[in-house]
Amino acid sequence: MTITLIPVHGLPEVHPGDDLAEMIAGHAALEDGDVVVVTQKVVSKAENRLVEVDPADPLSHKAHVEAEAVRVLRRRGDLVMTETRHGFVCANAGVDLSNVARGWAALLPVDPDRSARWIRDGLRARTGLTLGVIVSDTFGRTWRRGVTDVAIGTAGIAGIVDLRGTTDALGRELAVTEVCVADELAAAAELVMGKASGIPVALVRGVERQWLRESSVRAEIVRPPHEDLFR
Amino acid sequence: MTITLIPVHGLPEVHPGDDLAEMIAGHAALEDGDVVVVTQKVVSKAENRLVEVDPADPLSHKAHVEAEAVRVLRRRGDLVMTETRHGFVCANAGVDLSNVARGWAALLPVDPDRSARWIRDGLRARTGLTLGVIVSDTFGRTWRRGVTDVAIGTAGIAGIVDLRGTTDALGRELAVTEVCVADELAAAAELVMGKASGIPVALVRGVERQWLRESSVRAEIVRPPHEDLFR
Question: Is residue A162 over pLDDT 90?
């Protein structure tokens, strides 16, 4: 069983009010069982989650960071480590200037699980296919340098697959094996999108059929503060 | 440009002293530019990083956890969050009972970058191909539930790709874009390996040619404590 990562080429620039499902269906050769990974930036644009900033002041989006954060966990210089109202812990509450027109910043979608559902429902209505949709964003990690893409919203594709109770190749019961396949799918898709190449959508073809089920990043992946050892 | 994730089937159980490069070359249809992702467990077995534990006591490997850790960051119940001598922050110092014969536990390789180099050099000697090798392991995350595979050792494939100074699709200079492609490749490969299916090696075919360069997880990805906001 192989998996193929396929960038979707030719999507036009996305504007507020655009129908992402229609745009994706028009540019991607979708097949049944595909997982469609859509970067947060185009979802935020389609949903008009854009705010004006002073193009002459590289820090003018910081007021929006403070407004979007429900808690500031750490500060160092210009870096603000925040908790968002979705429960994400990320830099700058997800407020971001890259791949947005000069003078504007993009905020995270209000409810990225709902955004994923809208796109999935729109694609299903147009194609009749069983598909998963992941809204992805680029987060740093506590203990490791560099950023990777993770899932901030899902629809029709598992967040976490619980392999506990299954046995390993030697017949021993596996202990901790709650694999976050949604984050692994988002990371995999990023490999063919590339930050600089302006490809905001990729398909992951060939995932396990049983991973295609209803899901929610908020309910499955966000770690509640009471489980958390480092906040 | 698509990327394909290909599981390597048919590898026999690995024992101390086995030549992993020879085993992989004999079972994988390698092509020039492939990245070979090898799970830590078989590397530890080949390098005889196995210790005896009491099969009647599910906690008897904990003494090895304490020995392998250079620092314990947090404890909760049986969970011990540790820093290893490699600089990794992970549960139980990477000491692990799954996919190991009853009565044994596997420790992390002494130097996973060196392990990756050994395998890469062995594959290159046998095939003449330019290949990357990643040794992967399964780590939890501070703020998100579930585990994902990350790179603990690399050879011939970039750890972090720095896109700073390049421009985004709108011609703006990108700010923070040090993408940890090695972790994204490890996560992608896990999607076709699966914890329970006993496939310890996968190929990632079709990566950007310029990612195939000398590298080191220790030097590139491990975040030094002085950069760290949460330790």
Answer: no
